[in-house]
Amino acid sequence: RYKGIISFFKTFRTSVSKNILTWIVVLLVMLSFIRLNTLEIHEDGYHTDLAKLYFSTHTIIHEARDPLFVIPYPQLPEMTYILPISLGEKEIARFIHFSFYFFIILLLFQYAKENRNAKYAPLLFATAPLVIRYSASQYTDFFMVYCILLSVIVASSGQTKEKLLSGILYGGALSAKMWTTVYLPLFIIYLWISNRKLSRKKRATYIVAFTIGTFLISSFWQLRSVFLTGNPIFPFFSDIYYVGTEAIPGSALQAILSFGIKFNLFFIHNAHILSPLLLIGLLFLLVKLDKLMPALRRNKIFLFFLLMTAIHLILNFYGRYLLAWYSIAVIILSSGIVV
Q1: Are 294 and 150 in contact (CB under 8 A)?
Q2: pLDDT at position 336
Q3: Which residues pair with residue 248 across a beta bridge?
Q4: Of 315, 304, 320, 305, nearest to 264 (Cα)?
Q5: Which of 33, 56, 75, 174 has the fewest CB atoms nearer than 10 Å to its CB?
Q6: 3-state helix, strand, coil in the chain (%, to 5)
Q7: Could you tell me if 132 and 28 are in contact, meaning their C-beta atoms sit under 8 angstroms apart?
Q8: How distant is the alpha carbon of residue 109 from its chain centre?
Q9: pLDDT in tens, 201-217
Q10: What is the pLDDT at residue 183?
Q11: Which residues are paired to 240 by β-bridges?
Q12: In angstroms, what CA-CA distances link 127 with 106, 229, 249?
């Protein structure tokens, strides 16, 4: 009888704890939604300029210095802003960006449902200061983050058709942010190593399927870059690149490494990308590393996390350019809190 009572309270405590975590995330999402009803106080206005020009001219081929500024980078997410622009409601574009923030949260909840060690991932993502700030903004970063996170999850399981789908999703990220090209070698290495028990022919098939899927989506925007600049992968191998709406002169090498090469992933100026709770997960993960290592090795996403961390330690990414890495990091570092 006493064992039954004790068991009941343990179950009750676990249920309450789980619900509290869920409700904290729900509360943060609701607060971000409420903030959508206030005016945007910080935005890159050019994110809606392409939609405005397309609505009036019915083409996306415009010089970089139109009256409305259109950069020669891929701008797939901006095309989703055509609807609010056509309605004369520019602020609705923020709701579209918010929807991808919401999709990321749902995706992390779904992943946590299937992987117990990731149950704190939604909370770690939602409590990051930069995520809170951008959740009600008119940027396009959450579109890219959602595509990459889902691409990694899909690539970690399934057969050839799943690798093709993963490539299509990554192509969506490329069509949003050309700098995510740096992740392409990571996907290739990841598919080769994570499927090392399969034959080389099978692994090569996976890589080819992924590559085809990638360029099915991104090739359209690369063709646009050819029309605008003569370079399908602008700004790489170009004499200029853009920071916001400002054209920056530079050599081909400077364009490729426009962020520099520095080991600054965990420097203080990037602290706002990290949830305070993430530091707890990192501390516990290091303390319990021996206990957690078998589970981490079985988690294929752990390999991609290591690859992403390595590239970000080399390149000088900062702030929102770390959001894709962070969406993977919360899955791994959640393990430190769970165990």
Answers
A1: no
A2: 64
A3: 241
A4: 315
A5: 56
A6: 70, 5, 25
A7: yes
A8: 16
A9: 999 999 999 999 999 98
A10: 93
A11: 249
A12: 15, 40, 38
Sort 240 into a burial class: Cβ within 10 Å, 0-12 / 13-18 / 19+: middle
Model confidence over 32-56: pLDDT tens digits? Answer: 888 887 766 555 566 666 666 666 6
Written as six digits, the tokens of 71 are: 């950069």
One-letter amino acid of 97: H
φ and ψ at residue 240, rounded to 5 degrees: -140, 160
| CA Rg value for the chain | 21
By the 8 A CB rule, do 258 and 250 touch?
A: yes
CB 97 within 8 A of CB 142: yes
For residue 13, count other CB atoms closer than 10 A to its CB: 10
Structure tokens, 38: 């206030």
pLDDT range class, residue 275, cuts 50, 70, 90:
confident
- The model's pTM is 0.82
**CA–CA gap between residue 123 and residue 337 (Å, rounded):** 11
d(CA 326, CA 280): 15
CA atoms within 13 A on the CB side of 275: 25
Q: Quote the CA–CA distance of 32 and 274 in Å, as a whole number.
A: 18
